[in-house]
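Thread: Newbie trying to understand structure tokens

Hi all, I'm a second-year student working on a class project, and my supervisor (Dr. K.) asked me to get a predicted structure for one chain before our next meeting. I've only ever worked with sequences, so writing a 3D structure as a token string is new to me. If someone could post the tokens and maybe explain what I'm looking at, I'd be very grateful. Here's the chain:
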Amino acid sequence: MTVLRDDVIAWIQAFAAFIAENKDYLTQLDSDIGDGDHGTNMDRGFQAVCAKIPQLADKDIGSILKAVGMTLVSTVGGASGPLYGTFFLQAGSAASGKLELSLGDWVAALQAGVDGVIMRGKANPGDKTMVDALGPALQALKDSAARGSGFADSLRESADACERGMTATIPLVARKGRASYLGERSAGHQDPGATSSHLLLRAAAETWARQEN
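---
Reply by user tm_fold:
Sure, no problem. This is what the structure looks like when written as tokens:
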């Protein structure tokens, strides 16, 4: 199984749909410990991304991902724009010139994206950020690939690990961003960025797993 250019576009559209469906939920999570705008900001950004997709249909995967990143940087406010923008820009650099992705290519792209988020946000595991979801997802993907699992199984394991990482942010005390201002009061709340990160990788698993057969 390989992921083709059209599959990448389908993933981005699926993620945009997930964001739209969960906009109010993401905003509520952010209202508890942040500015209360994560859902609305992400939805606005991915509406802009979807509007540009017709212009990207003939581009290579790296160029598509970079265009998504640039659009998010220019349209999404708060921390989400720079962080998600960096994720897609770095993933796009790793996939530069490619018209299809193998499992190894996706591992490299996800690694680059996660590294970009860590560099941009200066966040470490345990800081109650999207890194707490993306880090375990990346490790699960690597482990699954190393065991020789198929692409679809690796995607599912990665998304499942991302969900566990998301849930594990609930008891954490935030050490980055607006949530960190609350100190101990930030404990008991799920991180909104970790939640949207799970939607990102769940969209990949659900969209791309269909290609295995």
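A couple of things are worth pointing out once you decode it. Residues 87 and 113 are 4 Å apart (CA to CA). The chain has one domain: 3-211. Feel free to ask follow-ups in this thread.
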